[in-house]
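Final report, section 2: Outcomes. Of the targets proposed, Enoyl-CoA hydratase domain-containing protein 3, mitochondrial is the one most frequently requested by collaborating groups, and we therefore present its record in full.
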Amino acid sequence: MTNLLTQVTNDEGITTLTLNQPERRNSLSLDMLRALGDALSDVAANDASRVVVLSAAGHVFCAGHDLKEIRGQFGSYAFQKELFEKCSEVMQQIVHLPQPVIARVAGVATAAGCQLVASCDLAVAENGARFATPGVNIGLFCSTPMVALSRNVSRKHAMEMLLTGDMIDAERAEKIGLVNRVVAPELLDETVYTIAATIAGKSAHTLNVGKTAFYRQLEMPLDEAYHYTADVMASNVVSHDAKEGISAFLDKRQPEWRHK
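The predicted structure is given below as tokens.
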């Protein structure tokens, strides 16, 4: 499965995971999902990694599930259940990963590929990128993709994508909150890695605290969310890096992170 995914970590703490099966439109076959899940597990345990860039080789970011694989297993409910459960597991791995994840989107991201973009913490797309949840067009509603989609864009925008299956362009994706920025293709890498480098320069401990709290509080009632985040901040402020960061700010010097 090593040919399905490439992983590169540079000296600045940025890990790049690249879907590497362009001849199959980087589809999320069961093997691809297993490879991506394994890579995410490795990254989670890598203290040298501060931020992750999720990229793809070729002209398609990800075309979703491998429909030929699905058709070949029409007779096996067990296979279909394993496939969609593994996909759901990988999407949750991204959300629960200690490091922030930035989707670098060039080309088309459809169905579970759109789900992959929505599951990342940030997304930057080239201006020619397009997005869709077109399962309704082939009789297979994008039920698992809608979990991530509906948590990133408003209900009506999500329902429009899910019910029509229509493709939207990058500018529309930015307007509805599916991606953060849209840039010219020649600026895609510069933009993505500038953001990644900015994040990588922060305390890894602080990033983990903040990312974890962000997703947890989203599902809470307002009063519970404030109670929870007040406790998070109180715990955060007594950590080494918060003490160092506050002192460095007051002393007008650069902080020296220990990532704890």
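Residues 45 and 124 are 25 Å apart (CA to CA).
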